[in-house]
Each structure stands twice: as C-alpha cells, then as structure tokens.
Write a structure and sequence with these properties.
The chain is an alpha/beta fold. 64% of the residues lie in helices and 8% in strands. Strands 2-1-3-4-5 form a 5-stranded mixed β-sheet, with helices on both faces. Helix 6 crosses helix 7 and helix 8 crosses helix 10.
Length: 330
Amino acid sequence: MTRPAGALALVAAVVGALVAVVLGFLTFGAQATVAPDHVPVAVAAPPEIAQRIAAHGPGQLAWTVASPAQARQLLEDKKVYGVLELAPGPAATVVTSGAVNPAGTQVAQQALTGAATALAGVPKQEVLHPVGLAGRVAPLAASALAWIGALVAGLALTQLAKRTGRTIGAGARFLQVTGAGVLITAVVAGFFALWDSTLPLTADVLGFVFLAATAFAALQAALLRVLGLRAMAVLGPLYLVAPAVAGQVPELLNPAYRALLWSWTPFRFAAEGLRSLLQGVPGAPDVTTALWVLGALLAAGLPVTLWPARSARQEAEPHLADGVVEVGVH
C-alpha cells in the first residue's frame, strides 16, 4: 500500500531532526560545554610556597609539587600541561611545551601566569619545543585527512565496482588499503611542506602517518564490506568528532563527552602521537600508545577486508548491503 505524501514528508522531517541532534551532540555540544576541571599542572618552588599553592586545589587545576627537574620531566611526558617555577626571591617562570595539546597548554599557561603574577609579579614565559601555528594544527589535520581520504577511497571502490559490474577480490581490496595509505601520506607531507617548511618530514613522521592512514583504511574497508553503504551511518559522523572532541584534552570536556566520545576516538591517538613526533619527542608515552592502537585497528580490519568468501554460492550472490558481487582473488 502506497503511503500518503504527508506521511513521507513527516518521516523526512523526523530524519532531518535526528541528523541535527547527532550533529549538535558531536560538534557544537562538545564545544559549548568546555570548562577546565582538574587540569594537571606542576609547581616547583620552596616547600612552604609550593604546599600553599597546591592547597588551593583541586578545582580547575590539579597541582603536583615537584623539583624543577621532575616538573619538567612531567611536562616532557605530557603528564602535566604546564609548570610554574618559583625560585627564592621574586623570580617566576611559567614553562609550557609545544609538544603538548595546545588547548590544555593555553588553559595552563593562563592559570599559571595568573598565579605567578599574584605571588611574584609578571613571570617569564619559557616554551620547550617551540611550535608555530601550522605545527599546532598539523597533527589533528593529518588525522582528519587520513580518515576522510581513506573513507572516500573505500567508498569509491565499492561504488565503482557496483556501477561497472566488476568484482572485488582480496587483491583489489589490499591494493586499495595500501594505495590509500601511500597516497594520503604523500598528500599530508605536501600540506606540511606548504604550511610550514620547518615541519620535519622524517621517516618516523611519514611512517606514522602511513600507519594511521592504512589502519583507518583497513577498518573502514572492513566495515564497508560487512555492512555495505550502511557503514556510512557510523563512519561519516565519526569524522565530525575530530575537530570537536579529539582536539581537546579530557580535563576541558564535559564528563559525558569525555566518557562517550573522547575516551575511544581513534583521532586523538593519531593526533597526539604525531604531535610528539613533529616536535622531536619520540619517546613520549602517547607515541607508544598510538602505535599500539593504530596497529590494533590495522590488525582487526585487514583480515576482515581480505577474508575470502565462504562459499562459491556467496561469490555468485550480490552483497545484501550494496549489491557488489563478492568473489575470490583474481
């Protein structure tokens, strides 16, 4: 029985409203609820002063009392976003790092500068691993470009095969995944060179970008193979998470966004690991974590992408989700 046009119009309106809800939750909602909460910072000062400062937390800041060397090591390890050094006398220094997420750095720098000014006057500002605007933007941009580029590559292969009636074997899928990784790495390297010629295009940086792009491509190809075009309902909105959530630090996000989105989004692992590599801190813990996460995505996605059809009958039947015929390697 044909549905009335009015019912179809109502369904379309509801779908539009649901899309608006998803977009609002993934993007503007995260940005609109940003507020500092237990932002980790360190203070290196004479004991009585350090304890007095730390006694004001917890709250917007979470203080760690340490020696100057220990505090700077915490900053190198990205366990704090800034350090307040108070030497005996009027001297004060606020230390930040270009290898740390810029959102957390900005909050820490403002708060530490205010605390130092109240105690000892306007402090000296010191930046470890100085970074320009392009260096701050590049890690998240590379992660987002790798995701969307790999997604379009996987979708294009599926749709081209459907339109031309050709089959997609394991060899073609492997070529699509690795080819997307190579070409997207070249694109990212080109943008880095265009944005700031001082950004290092070393083997570890390019290798990391290739791993991220290939891991994303493998995961997306696996979901597209299993779900067909329906996978776009998951893969497309995830792209919106990159600028809205992955670019923040958890201490600035509403707890709901922190638990439901930030805690698992692959963009943050790729972005923060690449940030450390670009700023010459390959030993930072987030590099190791990112390598494990991206490696796991690649290991999970590639077997599903390349797994042969289970039977000759399946090879002859169209894929239920997108109509692409599945066959073995040709």
